[in-house]
Amino acid sequence: MELAKHKSLAVVIGLIIPECRHFVTDSTNQSNRSLRFRPASWRSRRGVVQERRIMAKRRRRWGGRVNSPTRILWPSAFSNSVEQGILMAMNISIKPTVSFFLPQLALLFGLIAIFLVSVPGCASSDSESDGSPRSQSAVEYPIECSATIGMVAELVRNIGGEHVAVNQLIGSGVDPHLHKASRDDVQDIMAADMVFYCGLLLEGRMTDALERGAKNKPVIAVTERIDESTLLSFEEFDGHFDPHVWNDVSAWSECAAVVAAELAKFDPEHASEFQENLASYQAELGLLHDYGLQVISSIPEGSRVLITSHDAFNYFGRAYGLDVMGVQGLSTESEAGLQRINELVDLIIENDVKAVFIESSVSPKNIQALIEGAKSRGHDVSIG
């Protein structure tokens, strides 16, 4: 900003002092990086005489003393290449006539007006880019929020209320593990005011698109503040945490607090309303958690076995006391082998499991293989 200020002042001075057509570096005082205004013909004796005549004529016309040359100090941060570019730009032929001087004054006032307007603009741009809260005038409603999966979109809708418009990127029935960002997804991310996603590598193939969006807007993983002691990790997932946190309602409630905090940071004007919505929504999640505990406790302990398409319900099993088994691994990218299917068929028969469960985002072929395997051994099992 200081650099822009000095450049603007230099242009202004060059316009209102007609006889000063060149910047010449003062070689006797390099430490101060000072520059002189001198007439173009200053090197010749004839030019010096011409300058004196011009100055004398101005004294007679305007009265008083007219000093030449005029001296300005340049900031030491300016490089020689920048100086030379400005010197060349100022090398114009100007005659000290009244007909020329009046338009120059008009241009001067125009430049000053542009300069004064541009200073607050630069300041506000800097304040927004450093992540500080926006003023009320900077927020347009509704706040356009993109959310990757339905569970995250529900958090934003319930907490943002009427102040947000939520666009869900990954539709119901689409596997988030395998989903790659389409052109429309990228456009939606770039057009949004805020982006929310689950994190913990659930949307691993969308990482590049999310990182690009994070360069100019808040892109928030709702699981980012959950204590690691709450998260589950398995060897088959290379040390990463299980991302299916929403299956433990009490843990997912912590993610709702992240959404409220980020919305309040983006829109401080409605921070108290976001906190009220958070409290109300967390109360509903608390009731749901209690309901889950009550219902699952009615199932005999020996029958509390949950078999699903892939191993996405470990948080659910931990929270509500179920043994959870998945045909596929933690990620749907892993394939179920014949040995795994036979192991689960044995488990179904031994525990007299009556039902197995499919997922809308995962192919049902593995579950169908379980059903047929159990039937071939005289045990009927249905899809729950």
Describe the structure.
The protein is an alpha/beta fold. 47% of the residues lie in helices and 12% in strands. It has helices spanning 2-16, 45-62, 80-90, 98-129, 150-160, 183-191, 207-213, 249-266, 271-297, 314-320, 338-350, 365-376, and strands at residues 22-25, 34-38, 71-73, 143-147, 164-168, 194-197, 219-221, 305-310, 323-328, 355-356, 382-383. The chain has a 4-stranded parallel β-sheet, sandwiched between helices. It has a 3-stranded antiparallel β-sheet with strand order 1-2-3. The radius of gyration is 36 Å and the shape is elongated.
Task: Quickly describe the structure.
By secondary structure, the chain is of the alpha/beta class.
Notable traits:
disordered N terminus; 11 strands; alpha/beta; four-stranded parallel beta sheet; 12 helices; 47% helix; 384 residues; three-stranded antiparallel beta sheet
